[in-house]
Write a structure and sequence with these properties.
two-stranded antiparallel sheet; three-stranded mixed sheet; about 60% helix; binds zinc ion; single chain
Length: about 180
């Protein structure tokens, strides 16, 4: 039931991503499921990435951000704090234990970094099976916009042992913050 809802959120994320307008919902559903499974099964080779705490995340709509040169993850303390409050307000503590928002944000960014490695990226594209071109027996796979995001959320959920996908939290936070800024 909860897994179904998380999958529904993932499909909605894909549907709202440019290049997917008008695509068959069944195809989006398949991609969302494959991307989630891929993310859940990822085992990252942990590279040491520096973590920097920053503010200004709520304004930018970000929990965290990965920058590759030099490798650093910026965690937005204000967004994390607001999300922790939201978890308490909604009664979602059993899904997102205290401190798990920051841990999930870090895991999410590490997953993005991992998905940038060429062999991982190639495997991911093959799993999604979005064929761009067929040349004789060769197939060239196209990138599925938004799939990384779903895989990163699924990885973070598994790595942090969360009861729901952090996608739920991301969406709820976006709604809460835009409501607050309009009122
Ligand atoms: Zn992301």
């Amino acid at each position: 039931m909860n897994d179904d809802h998380d999958l529904h959120l993932a499909v909605r994320l894909l549907a709202g991503t440019p290049t997917h307008e008008g695509r068959d919902p069944a195809l989006l559903g398949r991609w969302a499921r494959t991307a989630s499974e891929f993310g859940r099964r990822m085992t990252l080779r942990h590279e040491t990435v520096r973590v920097i705490e920053r503010d200004g995340g709520l304004e930018a709509g970000l929990f965290a951000r990965y920058r590759s040169r030099p490798p650093v993850v910026e965690v937005y303390a204000d967004t994390v704090a607001r999300a922790e409050r939201l978890v308490a307000e909604r009664g979602w503590r059993h899904w997102f234990p205290e401190g798990s928002v920051r841990a999930a944000a870090l895991a999410h960014e590490q997953a993005h970094a991992w998905l940038h490695h060429a062999p991982v990226r190639a495997e991911f594209k093959r799993a999604l099976g979005h064929t761009a071109l067929r040349l004789g027996r060769r197939r060239l796979y196209a990138y599925v916009a938004g799939a990384d995001e779903i895989a990163a959320h699924a990885y973070a959920q598994t790595a942090c042992g969360l009861g729901r996908s952090p996608l739920l939290l991301t969406e709820a936070l976006a709604a809460a913050v835009s409501f607050e800024s309009e009122n």
